[in-house]
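Narrative of activities, Objective 1.

The group set out to show that a structural description can be obtained from nothing but a protein's sequence at a throughput compatible with the screening campaign. Below is one input-output pair from the validation batch, recorded exactly as produced.
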Amino acid sequence: MSVEARLMWDEGVTRYDFGPGHPMDPVRLTLTMRLVEALGLDKHIDVVAAPAAGDGTLGLVHRPDYLASVRHASGRPTEADERFGIGAGDTPAFAGMHEVSALIAGQSVAGADDVWRGVTGHAVNFSGGLHHAMPGRASGFCVYNDAALAIARLLERGAERVVYLDTDVHHGDGVQDTFWNDPRVLTISLHEHPRTLFPGTGWPEETGGRGAPGGAVNVALPAGTSDGAWLRALHAVVPELLAAFRPQVLVTQHGADTHFEDPLAHLTLSLDAQRAAVESCHSWAHEHAEGRWLALGGGGYAVVDVVPRLWAHLVATAAHAPVEPQAPVPETWRQTVYALTRQQGPRRMTDGRVPQWRSWQDGYDPADAVDQAVLATRRAVYPLHGLLP
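Output recorded for this entry:
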């Protein structure tokens, strides 16, 4: 029997922990799930724990030598091989790294399976969205690329057209690279400009390999871009490409690090704009992908004030049980926040803004930096899809 929406969740994903002081504090996952429960959303969505991805599944994207290296570092973190991006810099090795990374990947892959087989219309894995991991290298806090693995599973099952839309502040480089030459996958990334932010990729001229011209779409936005301009850019590029590509499944990544409170980046979105983007992705899944939607988490380092609220809205939207923007945050959850972090949690479910944006069809300003970014993307990729810039 099919269900309307599934939340892929196993408490074990909170063991994805790079240690004290690391920006990717797993408390953000715990607090998100506790907020989902405090809001009663778990009564509106089927909560399911999937098994960890096995080597056969991980091998759909990742190289055998890389998998072996992660396994070795997982058992002996002090012996991590830095040639594979593990053990230094952003992605230090930790005990059990392979097991928990495979568990997170398993949630995304199972969600993709369920959506493709019609078991559910929508699936959410907010512990996923680890979009920087490469086939043979860890990167940017990401060990296994669950987003790419979920897409690879969809292709393995027979999907012919999948769109991946990445709204994280950082470029979705690992997913783009994995499907660079695959015409069955269209990757779209809306991110801060590579001049000012890791990983330094995602230029509008990156439009796909020889095997898939137009298969990569990149909207590189200037630092400081806020609600109206960001939403204008999103709507100026995505809907037309979805209509042209006609995806059978929409996979979206909802990094919370576009928020103005995020400590690692320089866009200035409110929760209200982020919530509006979630609602648009939901609508686009129904309009362009027969309702098949896999929604993932991603970055986000304001782990108390921002991440749990955004991803609770994501769960609520997928469950067709939206939480009103002006709704108060449950006091029981605020008590949980204090108990776990000794911080005071936010009091309402958004920042209290009313995001508005001007349609691209109303005209553009060639002197505006965001409009320049949008036009650069449209000029680079639209003709490859038979569209006018």
